[in-house]
Amino acid sequence: MGDKKASVERNLYLGLVALSLAIFLVANDFTAFSPALPVVEREFDSDITTIQWVINAYALVCGVLIVSGGRLADMYGRRKIFFVGISIFIFFSFLGGIAVNMGMLLLSRAFMGAGSALIWPSVLGMMYSLMAQKNAGLAGGLIITICGIANSVGPLVGGFLADYVSWRWILFINLPLSLVSLYLCFKVIPADAIGVPKEKLDYRGVVLLSSALFSLLLAFDFVVDVGFKNYLVFGLFISCFFLFCLFLLIEGRESEGALIPPDVAGNKSFIAAACAALLIAQFFYAGFFFIPQYLSKVHGTSATVAGLGLVPLMLAFSVFGFLAGKVYKVVGAKLIVSVATLLMALGLYMLSHIYQDSQYIRLVPGLIVLGAGIGLFNSTIITFAISVVDSRRASLAGAIIFMVQIAGGAVGLGLNTTIVVMAGDISYGIGQAFTLNAYLAMLSFIICVLFIGSKEEKS
User: Fold this and answer.
1) Is 249 exposed, middle or buried (0-12, 13-18, 19+ CB in 10 A)?
2) Residue-by-residue DSSP string for 301-335
3) 209 and 313 together in one domain
4) Are residues 237 and 192 part of one domain?
5) For the chain, what is the domain count?
6) Are residues 224 and 367 in the same domain?
7) How far apart are the C-alpha atoms of 188 and 183, rounded to whole Å?
8) 266 CB-near residues (< 8 Å, 6+ apart)
9) Dist. CA 35–CA 304, nearest whole Å
10) What does the pLDDT average to over 274-285?
11) Same domain, 52 and 142
């Protein structure tokens, strides 16, 4: 009996290691390129509006497809979909590593995003299944802690590799880690039951939403060169609006087959969490992108030092993400996310006072406050969102929140990049962008206070 219990515990720990490693891989790839982008920019003779797509191609595809990944995981089994996703991730990590031009790199990053869209909701569902319902807050804290560690290590490793080996190894290093995660998952995590095999994917919804977001990002890209009054830019904004309206119309008619099913879309607590997450997402990637850009282009630091510049933010992110999981059941979601949004608004306001001659040490308090707010918010909002829907929708609920965060972050990065480039001076532009983001954080605070419940109540 004791041997059987020990075997179960061993498989549990190995399963958590396998899933944690997968979370680490996906999260690491969002930040590892941040300090290396100036190096890639020089190698391919590119510019800041194009180089942002190394992050945005990955983020946008992942963000738009992640809900479909959640539906597939619930329909055909999380373990099976995980295997498909990590296989795609491995192949295109290798292809991106051998890229001969910017187009090949961006294409590889887009397909890596597709792989991540299958990996992420599958891992979330399996992680929450491995841990008892009473430990949901702990599971959320563990996930965000791993994300925080991955995001912290990403800029350090990415900067070091770009300086001393090659930025290409940021992608090559994914191969052995992915294979270890794949092997452990295959060995110790049993196949899960198929939830709703007769459901269909809303392919039209995916295409329309993808096209709408891509049109918006492309408009931000072009506006830097030709201005807002250009017919092409105006047409792209109109296309985005039209496609998004068409998406909402089709979603309303699809009923159970919709990208976001009625029982989830009609859950007021869940929608409030998604709206708050969307506003916060607008500046998440911008911080990772612009702080290294500022250090590299204004202060002339190496990629390694630029990566080190993000450490205060990321350490605060991971520490407070873990703490949020610990206190979730004690104080409830409302208090945590309300405090978190206030901290983020304060951190962004502090960072908005950035100038050409600002010393790095003056940025550190703002980075710490911002990181603490992000850690508290992300851990709590994910756990809350999953807790207020039916347990059969766990993967889907987590996927929708991540879609909002990732796709919203991609749009936010595009918007922030436009603000920075049009300002002319990078320091002044970053300050302007962070000021706008501080107001968005305050708007999220209002939503959290008014609409996020203190208790986990399914509606």
Assistant:
1) exposed
2) --HHHHHHTTHHHHHHHHHHHHHHHHHHHHH-HHH
3) no
4) no
5) 2
6) no
7) 9
8) 459
9) 7
10) 85
11) yes
Q: Give CA separation, 271 vs 191, 243, 349, in Å.
A: 31, 21, 27
The C-alpha atoms of residue 356 and residue 300 are separated, in whole angstroms, by 12
Global pTM exceeds 0.85: no
Burial class (CB in 10 A: 0-12, 13-18, 19+), 70: buried
Alpha helices by DSSP H, 32-77: 37-43, 48-51, 53-76
pLDDT at residue number 137 = 57
Mean pLDDT of the chain: 82
Contact 132, 144 (CB under 8 A): no
167 and 301 fall within a common domain? yes
Q: What is the CATH number of the domain that holds 78?
A: 1.20.1250.20
Residue 145 and residue 59 share a domain: yes
Residues of the domain holding 212: 203-258
End-to-end CA distance of the chain: 41
Q: What is the pLDDT of residues 242-270, one digit of tens each?
A: 998 998 888 777 766 677 777 787 788 88
Closest CA to 337 of 403, 273, 407, 412: 273
Structure tokens at 68: 């479909």
